[in-house]
Specification:
about 325 residues, alpha/beta, about 25% strand, four-stranded antiparallel beta sheet, about 25% helix, binds adenosine-5'-triphosphate, 12 strands
Length: about 325
């Protein structure tokens, strides 16, 4: 097991009180596994991604542990986390295209970054990884502004994985891309795993179809908690949580016109995480909710690797 997250709680401090963005998340990730993380906007996907690498000043680690390759990550301690970033855990951020320093040519930027980690650039290795994602070596002598959005994205992917981190977090890396560039990025991520540049990966996305293509397992989150986690095929073909089912039903189908079948979303909206209700957080929107749902559902393993938090599953 490369990553073990137990009862992780991460809250945001706001003027109105604390937003419980992650409220007791537990899951594991094996060596070599790609985990797709999906769920509606605001369910806590980015908070989970960020808390595993760099918590911002408004986030508070309210409980729980994160263990990577047998070592506890000091997620609440920004300075101590420095020893782990890039080397053990790395992120391709949500807005990777703007993550590059505009005032530096890329070669200088990479050199400075590695120097700050106490390492030199292995130019041959860097160029070989760039060529693997279709970037010519001349790119190193350009400023970020001289690259297209897709090229910047791929450059950030190469830089984030240069020190062969055990865990890579890809946070919404395909959302701003056209479909063929999305495929290229997905292929590159799979290639990084095959080449051993990263061991395992958390792929955060809204795109269930793309996740199904590349992920081994999919974890569905709802309102700061785990709803369901299972092998990718099981989530798509035999989901057990009512939320996962509705999420899949609300996907648009190519070839079906609005006039023939109205595109249904999931009625209602998620609860406020400032003061979330007791019991199952999906209860108010759930078509099969019953009295027992007033109690918090435990996460149960229905079949090997298939975890569901629902009394009715
Ligand atoms: N800086 C912040 N201060 C207060 N609340 C925040 C902050 N950032 C996020 N939140 C809240 O935390 C919850 C989880 O947000 P998060 O961004 O992790 O969700 P997400 O699933 O990644 O959403 P999206 O898909 O839109 O990126 C939401 O209720 C959000 O409003």
């Amino acid at each position: 097991m490369s990553l073990l997250v137990s009862e992780l709680k991460v809250y945001y401090r706001t003027l109105k009180g604390e937003v419980r963005a992650l409220d007791g998340m537990s899951f594991g990730l094996s060596d070599g596994e790609i985990l797709g993380l999906v769920g509606e906007s605001g369910c806590g996907k980015s908070t989970l991604a960020k808390s595993l690498i760099r918590m911002d000043g408004r986030m508070r680690h309210a409980g729980g542990r994160v263990v990577l390759d047998g070592e506890e990550l000091p997620i609440a301690d920004d300075r101590r986390m420095n020893d782990f970033r890039f080397r053990k855990v790395s992120i391709i951020p949500q807005y990777a295209m703007s993550a590059l320093n505009p005032t530096r040519k890329l070669r200088k930027m990479v050199t400075e970054l590695l120097a700050s980690r106490g390492t030199d650039v292995d130019t041959a290795e860097l160029e070989s990884r760039m060529s693997q994602v279709g970037l010519p070596r001349e790119v190193l002598d350009r400023y970020p502004i001289e690259l297209s959005g897709g090229m910047k994205q791929r450059m950030v992917m190469v830089i984030s994985t240069l020190l062969d981190p055990s865990l890579l977090i890809a946070d919404e890396v395909t959302s701003a891309l056209d479909v063929s560039t999305q495929k290229a990025v997905a292929r590159a991520l799979l290639g990084f795993r095959e080449s051993g540049y990263v061991k395992s990966m958390i792929f955060v996305t809204h795109d269930l179809a793309l996740t199904h293509h590349i992920a081994d397992t999919i974890m569905v989150m709802y309102a700061g908690k785990l709803a369901e986690k299972a092998p990718a095929d099981v989530i798509v073909k035999a989901p057990r949580h009512p939320y996962t089912r509705l999420l899949l039903d609300s996907l648009p189908e190519v070839g079906v016109r609005y006039a023939d079948r109205r595109l249904e979303g999931i009625a209602g909206s998620p609860p406020s995480l400032l003061d979330p209700p007791a019991g199952c957080r999906f209860r108010d929107r759930c078509p099969i909710a019953g009295d027992e749902c007033a109690q918090d559902p435990p996460v149960t393993e229905l079949a090997p690797g298939h975890h569901v938090a629902c009394w009715k599953a």
